[in-house]
Amino acid sequence: MMRLSMAKKLALAALTAAALAIATLGFGTSGQGSMTALTPNAAMAQETTPDAATAPLPEVPELVLGNADAPVTLIEYASYTCPHCANFHETVFKDLKKDYIDSGKVKFVFREVYFDRYGLWASMVARCGGETRYFGISGMLYEQQKEWAASDDPTKVVESLKKIGRTAGMDDATIDACLGDAVMAQALVAKFQETSTADKVEGTPTLIINGEKYGNMSYEDLKKILDEKLG
């Protein structure tokens, strides 16, 4: 399990500032794949105005799969830069989705955890695709985690994330706008801090099943718990 203690030590402003490095440092790509400066967008400009500090943050929608009225609700807290989370989605989530979510037995809620700016950027790209594409992009992020998250060069990370976004059907202008959305970055971090604190999340992946908290586990162990909850 990847520990969350380090993330809890990060102030909201510090992590948000890290997220905004894409815009402030000018990370973007040209059609040929070379790095070019991003023009500061309206969201970035808004942050510098006096009203921005007091303006209400946009709503961050929950990421949900399955039957809204299912007898069991499973909330997963996970980070896109967490290797244990990638392994969980490879070895557990696929069977969980097939056997319980798609069958209407379990309502699945995915909540993003941000250990670092790369994980936040990945979330912003995934959410850029909207509700219909989110979980498809999420799967690609985990499947390709070793490739895009391994670099120490933020420009390479951004280009790798944009490549995933393009594979999902988005163009560069759309992805750049999402990555440069300072207000949404702030809202995402605020939502993460609110929910993870309320649920006392200490590491990833963390599962909340009908209000009870569990750590990482095999599919066999998860299946036993779900079957008990389903009666």
From TrEMBL:
InterPro entries: Thioredoxin-like_fold, Thioredoxin-like_sf, Thioredoxin_domain. GO terms for molecular function: oxidoreductase activity. Residues 38-231 form the Thioredoxin domain. Residues 1-23 form the signal peptide. It comes from the Bacteria. PROSITE patterns: THIOREDOXIN_2. Keywords: Disulfide bond, Oxidoreductase, Redox-active center, Signal. The keyword Disulfide bond applies. The keyword Oxidoreductase applies. Pfam families: Thioredoxin_4 (PF13462). Transmembrane segments: none annotated. Belongs to the thioredoxin family. DsbA subfamily. May be required for disulfide bond formation in some proteins. This is Thiol-disulfide oxidoreductase. It comes from Cereibacter sphaeroides (Rhodobacter sphaeroides).
